[in-house]
Specification:
The structure holds two protein chains of two kinds. Chain A contains five helices and no strands. Chain A is mainly α. Helix content of chain A is 64%, strand content 0%. Chain B is globular and about 55 Å long. Chain B has two domains: 90 residues, RNA polymerase sigma factor, region 2, helix turn helix motif (Rna Polymerase Sigma Factor, Chain: A, Orthogonal Bundle), CATH 1.10.1740; 81 residues, Winged helix-like DNA-binding domain superfamily/Winged helix DNA-binding domain (Arc Repressor Mutant, subunit A), CATH 1.10.10.10. By secondary structure, chain B is mainly alpha-helical. The chains are: A mainly alpha, B mainly alpha. Chains A and B meet through helix 1 and helix 2 of A and helix 3, helix 4, helix 6 and helix 7 of B.
């Protein structure tokens, strides 16, 4: 009879030479004296960027990846709606400006027509007019025509 | 008891001071248990060797972070466990492997040796162990290989002691049941 520990260890005994090689490799990377800081510089460059990014990915993003994906989808939806609204409003604006131009052209045409029809002395429709137009023949009310009275 | 005696004599302070001979003793002591633990989780020899190497390198680099010298073993297995989880995440990208087994922490049996295996049952035992989901397997391996306490296994695996008890209980029960059936 064996304990699980004995059974497991016996099963993997044959790998011990390779484990010895791994141990020697790690020990060779250790400095002869002082702390194990010498292991740091050989991976120093990657430590700052690659490892930090990996660590951030696994500790910050990956555990709540569904929440992040949901947020991203939500933002994409908001962005899509926003872009769609912008496109619609610019289309409306473009259509509206065309109509306004037509109106301006029509008004200009009418003004030109009016200027042609009116005699040259009269102020044109474009000129500013006084609020009360002058009377054609000003005279006292008593001199005016007798109103016709029907009996 | 042999494991505990060996653990008491570990030259952790010397290793912290940078003594290569002390590191040699520590690596020798843990290389096979670590390899067994990692291999039974990842099932690939080269990957397991790589992970053991990475664990040793990390240990040498971060030994100053170890507060209690007598917890060196658990700390080292904690590093290896994290490496295994990173490997799982890379390979499977599945959360289901880490699902909980049971809610109530039942009482445990005596120790890792309460489950004895006959020689003709060895292969079967290994096969059955590998059928267990990784969280149960991980807890059982830590229990079998190093006889870690529930609290130590909880620290290594980063789960609550109650969850460890539960996983140990259900893992052992599943193994016994499977072995009885065979």
């Amino acid at each position: 009879m064996k304990t699980p520990r004995e059974a497991l260890f016996e099963r993997h005994r044959q790998v011990e030479p390779r484990l010895d090689a791994v141990r020697q490799k790690v020990l060779a990377a250790l400095p002869a004296s002082g702390s194990a800081d010498a292991l740091q510089p050989c991976r120093g460059e990657r430590w700052s960027i690659q490892t930090t990014l990996k660590k951030a990915w696994f500790e910050l993003i990956w555990p709540s990846r569904r929440a992040w994906a949901g947020m991203a989808a939500l933002w994409l939806a908001v962005l899509a709606v926003n872009l769609e609204m912008k496109a619609t409003s610019s289309r409306v604006l473009a259509g509206g400006s065309a109509a306004a131009q037509e109106i301006v052209q029509a008004v200009e045409q009418q003004r030109r027509l009016l200027a042609e029809l009116l005699p040259p002395g009269k102020p044109s429709a474009g000129e500013p007019r006084s609020v009360e137009a002058p009377r054609a023949n000003p005279r006292p009310r008593s001199e005016g025509p007798v109103p016709f009275k029907a009996c | 008891m042999l494991v505990v005696a060996e653990r008491d004599q570990l030259p952790v302070p010397q290793a912290r001071a940078g003594d290569p001979a002390a590191w040699d003793v520590l690596f020798r002591r843990y290389q096979l248990p670590l390899y067994v633990y990692v291999f039974e989780l990842v099932h690939d020899e080269q990957t397991s060797l790589d992970l053991v190497q990475e664990t040793f390198i990390n240990a040498a680099r971060h030994i100053d972070g170890l507060r209690e010298d007598d917890k060196f073993g658990g700390w080292l297995f904690g590093i290896a466990h994290q490496k295994c989880i990173q490997r799982w995440r890379k390979q499977t990208r599945e959360e289901s492997a880490f699902e909980e087994v049971g809610a109530d922490p039942p009482e445990l049996g005596a120790g890792p040796d309460d489950l004895l295996i006959r020689e003709e049952q060895e292969e079967e035992f290994m096969g059955l162990l590998n059928q267990l989901p990784p969280p149960q397997r991980s807890v059982l391996l830590l229990h079998f290989v190093e006889d870690f306490s529930v609290e130590q296994i909880a620290q290594i695996t980063g789960v609550a002691p109650g969850t460890v008890k539960s996983r140990l209980h259900y893992g052992k029960r599943a193994l016994r049941k499977l072995m009885a059936e065979s």
